[in-house]
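ligand=pyridoxal-5'-phosphate
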Amino acid sequence: MSAAWGFDTRQVHAGAIVDAEAGARITPIYQSAGYVFDDFDDGEERFAGRSARRAYSRNDNPTNVVAARRIADLEGGVDGVLVASGQAAIAAALGALAQAGDHILTTDRLYEGTREMARGALRRMGLELEAVPIDADEDAWAAAVGPETRAIYAESIANPLGEVADLDLLGRVSKRTGVPLVVDNTVATPYLCRPFEHGAAVVIHSTSKWLSGHGSVIGGAIVDGGTFDWDAAAARFPHLHAPRPHGAPSFAERYGAAAYAAYLRAVVVLEHGPSFPPTSAFLLLHGIETLSLRMERHVANARVVAEALTRHPAVARVHYPGSDDDPRRAVVARMLPRGVGSIVSIDLGTRDAAHAFLDRLRLVSQMTHIGDVRTLAIHTGSTIHGKLDEAERLALGITPGLVRISVGIEEAQDIVDDLLQALDVLAPRSAAECDAVLQPEVH
Ligand SMILES: Cc1ncc(COP(=O)(O)O)c(C=O)c1O
């Protein structure tokens, strides 16, 4: 593996192994719970972590290791760990940093599942998550950091309205305060955004989305950037510096810059057990091999869809980070030089309008999921944000007529045609408005 290889080469080759027994070129599915010890002493060595050889697939499986290394490589990190879902990745990533009584700062624009975890399981476990406006300035962020703060948490592109976090600014706050920046890079993927280059310490993914890409896998990944100085922050993270059983060196001593990933694998995943199925890792690897190709098409299609929807009279507002009138345009250009992703959310004014629109779609599937090769749409107010009351939804920008569209890689014209025929039921277009809809680019 050469560090000089480009992204397209590394997405195919990084971390790959050639199976020793059969010489298989494709990473095999090692569907095995455990690994035979050579003898009694070997078993003891593996359990004590003194041997590099694995013991049990709950936290260490060869197929999973290849996929985790590949994601870590694409992100530019030093180590990666796969877990059972994106939700599990968030829980494990924060669980490896914080304990009861600790505090985590987040942007106020996050996937609702993460917010639900914050006010549910994490609060019950004694963690306090505090939201800071995504466009707050550096001093406001730094002022919100207290002695108990263990992480600054952001989504590079927020789900569902596409607000883009200024990771450079958050990276500077992380450096000033000694608190690691954790970035959920699910919607951007490492092809569009590289959080470690902006000061992140940890990147997490729902690998269920664009990384797998085909709607067939639930999974999550956590990548350690090797960028954070755990020694300088020893007071906040004593568990990484504590002596281990039988006089073994602490995680910080033994693993240095990769101490966080080692702790995550050897303690958090081992103890909680959110294991990733190796069959899913096999599918994930196949998805990653075409990530850049799919992302280019996703991005191009989303731009065409956003432009077409902007011109339709039934659409009150388009939420798309590539819009010319996006107040954070400069941040978007700095964070996402290769494109702004493929989530386009539209406000149709009322819940009834959203209802009529969604039930009229033919090509586009009405379901909860994003990052699929297929175009998907959902009324988030009655589903993902359904547990909130109206005022809470509005405070998050979830208006009654909001529909999130995850734009797939089908022919752009076919996606646009399906969306427009459903919108025409709400507000038929004039001939001039029909003509104004751009013809999609030919790929
Ligand atoms: C940004 C983001 N992070 C995390 C998750 C959770 O991922 P999963 O569904 O794999 O648990 C999602 C799911 O939609 C998401 O959109």
